[in-house]
Write a structure and sequence with these properties.
Radius of gyration: 19 Å
Number of strands: 10
Helix content: 10-25%
Number of helices: 5
Strand content: 25-35%
Structural class: alpha/beta
Largest sheet: 4 strands, parallel
Shape: elongated
Order of helices and strands: EHEEHEHHEHEEEEE
């Protein structure tokens, strides 16, 4: 093996995003050999790296089957971070239901595997949710995430409900307090990041 840590990106960011570049520079300062490669680059020998760190693979959601096949393969020849079972579990937001069943406090979540406007209306009506957030079960960067209300469900077209979706009650506090991400290493919290949406928005992704 010739690489200590390989940062994995996607075709959209062939040289890595700004964070990838900063991480690679920091690793080099520690005398670690590192490079940045797209997960879909067939020319890469993934066994060359001691550690393969998934970082900016922001297209996994449009080709999840292929991405998971790649991740599983790499896990057999390199130390994949995170471990493949975690990546597989985390690649679909239905993991929230798993956490919910284990008693972890979460925003109430409903998974619709055959989504239609009627199924959506029924789920909201049964739970008395007047305003909800609708999102793809497999998605990234806020793609397809939208806010809906019971009174405006007539504007939802079944054709827009492609693939499994999740619905959750709209949490108003996110528009002011924002969303907090906890960063952990070895099971211990290292630091936290608060992401606030811009005025009038509820999504906290950078592009919004």
């Amino acid at each position: 093996m010739t690489i200590d840590v390989r940062l994995v990106t996607c075709e959209r960011y062939p040289e890595g995003d700004s964070e990838s570049v900063s991480i690679a520079a920091a690793l080099r300062c520690l005398s670690m050999k590192t490079d940045i490669a797209s997960w879909s680059d067939r020319a890469i020998d993934w066994s060359d790296a001691r550690i393969t760190l998934i970082h900016s693979t922001w297209d996994y959601h449009v080709c999840r089957t292929e991405f998971l096949a790649w991740a599983e393969s790499v896990s057999t020849v390199s130390c994949l971070m995170n471990p493949f079972p975690v990546i597989q579990w985390n690649s679909c937001k239905a993991y929230l239901l798993d956490l919910q069943s284990r008693g972890v406090p979460t925003v109430p979540t409903v998974l619709l595997t055959s989504p239609t406007r009627e199924a959506l209306a029924r789920a909201m009506r049964d739970r008395k949710w007047e305003r909800c957030v609708l999102k793809p079960a497999v998605g990234a960067d806020g793609l397809g995430v939208r806010r809906i209300s019971e009174s405006a469900l007539h504007q939802v077209d079944d054709a827009d409900l492609d693939g499994d979706v999740l619905i959750q009650p709209f949490v108003r506090t996110i528009q002011g307090a924002g969303e907090v991400s906890l960063i952990m290493f070895g099971g211990r919290i290292s630091y936290a990041v608060r992401k606030r949406p811009r005025l009038g928005e509820f999504r906290v992704q950078t592009r919004f």
